[in-house]
Amino acid sequence: MPVLSKAAESSPQGKEQTVGIDDLAVYVPGLYLPLEGEFARSRGIDPGKLIKGIGIERMAVPDAHEDAATMAAMSLLLLMRRSGLQPDRIGKIYVGTESSADEAKAMGTYVIGMLEQVYGRGSFRECGTVEMKAACIATTLALESQSYWLAAEDEDKVGVVIASDVAKYPLASPGEYTQGAGSVSLLLKKNPRLLSLEQVYGHFTRDENDFFRPMGCTTAVVNGKHSNQCYLDAVTGAFDSFAARAARNGIIVPAASECVTDFLDHILFHIPYPRMVEYASAAIFRHDWKGCQRRLKVEAEIGPEPGEGDGKDAAAFQAAQADYARHFARSPQFLEAFAAKVKDTATLSRQIGNIYTGSIYLGLASLLELDRIQTGQRLGFGAYGSGCSALFFSGQVEAQAEDLPGLGLMKRLEERKAITLADYEMLHEGKREKSVVQPEQEFVLEGIDSQGYRHYKFVE
Q1: What is the pLDDT of residue 1?
Q2: Nearest of 409, 381, 414, 412 to residue 395 by alpha carbon
Q3: What is the per-residue pLDDT for 399?
Q4: Quick one: how far is CA 449 from the chain centroid?
Q5: Beta bridge partners of 189
Q6: I need a labelling partner for 66 at 20 to 30 A (CA). Which of 29, 165, 275, 427 fits?
Q7: How far apart are CA 436 and CA 423, in angstroms?
Q8: pTM to 2 decimals?
Q9: What is the pLDDT of residue 257?
Q10: Is 7 helix (H, G, I), strand (E, B) or coil?
Q11: Residue 12 CB neighbour total at 10 angstroms
Q12: How far is residue 240 from each of residues 201, 295, 360, measured CA to CA in Å?
C-alpha cells in the first residue's frame, strides 16, 4: 500500500472539476555573464560571496534585439508549440511585468501582434489581454485573477499567464550581481495535467519604500536590508492568512502536534537571489513550528526565542532576534526541512539570476527539471512584490504531471554564449546596436519609430 503524503491525506475527495496549471514554458536569452572571473575582479568582489553567499553563478543577459516583450512572445510561442495549442483556444493572456515597454499600451498586445506573424493576422482577435504591475508579485496576482475567470468560463477556453522581465540595476551598484532576464508562460486550464490550484489565497499588503522605480527611470531604487525584512514580514503575514483560510475551508487542518508546513511537500518562494529562499524558509518554518514538537527540539539545542519582555531595549531585542535567527537557520531540524522542501527550487535561478515576476515559477520549472514532483504532492507558493505585497497559495500535483515532456532547460542553459564584461556593459547601457548572436527563429525588436512606437518582427 503506497504511503500518502500529508497533502494527499488532507485533500478533499470527489472534486469534479479543478482549475490550475496545465503546462509551462521558459524562455531565457542566449547570452550570459559569468559572475566569477572578470566580473568579480572588476567589481572588487570575492567570488565566494557571489557563488556561495548570494547563490548566483551566471547572469542571463538580453541581446541587443531583445526586450521583455520579445521574451514574453518567445515563451508563449514555446508553450503553444509544446502543448499543441491553437490561438482560438486562448481566451485571455495576462502579462505580469515590471519591465513594461510602454506606459499605457499593454505588453500583451505587442505579444499578440508578434504571435500573429506566426499564426496569421487576426488569429488572436477574440483574446482578452491586460498587463499587471505589482513588482515581483504581478504574475501571481494575474494567476489568481485568471483562475477565478477560468472557473466561471462556460466555453472550452484556456488562459495564459506570462511573466517577463529584465532585472536591471545601475552598473557597479550593490544589486548589479542579482540581475537576470527571462520569461515564463503558464497554461491555465480546467482539469489541468500539472497542478490543480486549491483556490485558497492568503494576502498581506502594506505601504513600503523597499524597492521602486520612479517614472522615467530604467533602473530600480533598492533599499537592500529593508527590502529583505519587508519580504520576510510580508510572506509570513500572507502565510498566516493562507493557513487560516485553508483551515476554514477544510484544506489543511493540522492536528495539535502538527504544523501547516507538514502538509506542504515543496515550498516555492520568490527568488531575488537564491540565498533569499533560505532566509524566507527559515522565517516560515520558525514561525510555523511554534508550539510544535520539533520546535522544542530546536530550542533544546539553541535555547528559547528571545521575548519582547526580556528587559532589552528595542535595539538589543532586534539584535537578539537576528542572532537567534542565525542559530535557527543552522539547526539540524531546519536544514533537513530546507533540503527536503525548498533547496531544489533555486536550481535554475543560480544559472539565470533574478527574473522578477517569473522567478517563483522558475522554481516550479526547477522541480520539473530535477524530477522532484510526484502525484498527490502539495506545493506551497510564497510570492512577494516590493512596495509591498505577498500572496501564499497551494496546489496539488496531478497524476498526468508525470507524463509531461521535459523542458530541456539544463541543456539550453549550457548552450548559451558567455559574453565579456565589455559586451555586457554595452548591452546594459543600450550602446550596442548589433546583436552578439544573429537572431534566428525568434522575435526581435526591429526598431522604435519617431513617435516612440516599438516595431517587432519574427526572424526566420
Answers
A1: 29
A2: 381
A3: 96
A4: 33
A5: 20
A6: 275
A7: 8
A8: 0.94
A9: 84
A10: helix
A11: 9
A12: 11, 18, 19
